[in-house]
Structure formats: structure tokens, C-alpha cells
Design brief:
It contains five helices and six strands, in the order H-E-H-H-E-H-E-E-E-H-E. By secondary structure, it is of the alpha/beta class. It has a single domain, classed as Barwin-like endoglucanases. A six-stranded mixed sheet has the order 2-4-3-6-1-5. The radius of gyration is 18 Å and the shape is globular. The termini are far apart. The relative contact order is 0.25. Keywords: Signal. This is Ecp2 effector protein domain-containing protein.
């Protein structure tokens, strides 16, 4: 009986671990600059003051990572504040042959419906310091 119980438990564990992840993505997303100047300071603001509360509720997330704010029309579909399923998740963003990774830390309420990012990411995708032009046609994906 012990052997059968062990096999059933192992089979259930394998089934649970094989559960498929959901991917949130878009092939036509806007990107915008959250704050010009020092990227490290910008990332710390998103980490410490963003809707997700990364520095308080997501201690296992690399606190020195790059952070972004997701457009509210995307963010709001997955919960509120630190209970949002996107919070603390790695996002992969691509545009014009460049790909970067960051962590979702905040909600962007702008009318641009854009992913807000700091200067290091902004420059990687062709943006310039002190140029707030919206970048169109970005691709992103997040496994939740």
C-alpha cells in the first residue's frame, strides 16, 4: 500500500509541475520613457514606489534589476497592486532587433498605453535622453 501511495503522489506532483504557463504578449505595444537621466535612480523609484511594491512584497526579485511600468489596460486585467499576476514577473521586450529583459514593477496610466521604461532600456530601443517620443511597434511577452 505504501508503494502505491508513493506512486500516486509522484504522479500527481508531476502533473502539477507540468501545468502550462500562460503567456501575456503583444506584437504592437507602445514604449515610453518613465524618467530621463540616471537609469539606476529611475529603476529604484519603480522598485520602491511602483504599484507592485517590489522592495516590500517581492524580496526574491533581484532588487538591482531593470524595472518597467505596464500600461494600465494590460496591467489591470491581472489584479490590483502587489496581488497583480504580472508583478515581479520578467518581461522580455523586443524592438528593431534589440531584446531586453526587465521586471514588472508598476502600472502606467498614460494615454499612450505604453510600457514605461528607464533610460537604459529606452536607449537600447532607439530612444534618446530628453526625447519623450513614443516608440511604436514593440513586442513583449511575460510568462505568468
Amino acid at each position: 500500500m505504501q508503494f502505491t501511495t508513493t506512486l500516486v503522489t509522484a504522479a500527481l506532483a508531476a502533473t502539477v509541475s507540468a501545468a502550462p504557463q500562460k503567456t501575456v504578449s503583444s506584437n504592437n505595444q507602445n514604449g515610453s520613457i518613465y524618467r530621463f537621466g540616471d537609469a539606476k535612480q529611475c529603476h529604484h523609484i519603480l522598485r520602491d514606489s511602483g504599484a507592485c511594491g517590489i522592495s516590500t512584497y517581492f524580496k526574491k526579485v533581484n532588487q538591482e534589476a531593470s524595472f518597467v511600468a505596464m500600461p494600465s489596460d494590460v496591467f489591470d486585467k491581472y489584479g490590483s497592486a502587489q496581488n497583480n499576476k504580472l508583478c515581479g514577473k520578467e518581461i522580455t521586450i523586443s524592438h528593431n532587433g534589440q531584446t531586453r529583459k526587465a521586471i514588472v514593477a508598476d502600472r502606467n496610466l498614460s494615454n499612450d498605453h505604453s510600457i514605461d521604461m528607464c533610460l537604459d532600456l529606452w536607449k537600447a530601443f532607439g530612444g534618446k535622453d530628453n526625447d519623450g517620443t513614443v516608440i511604436h511597434g514593440m513586442h513583449f511577452s511575460i510568462n505568468i
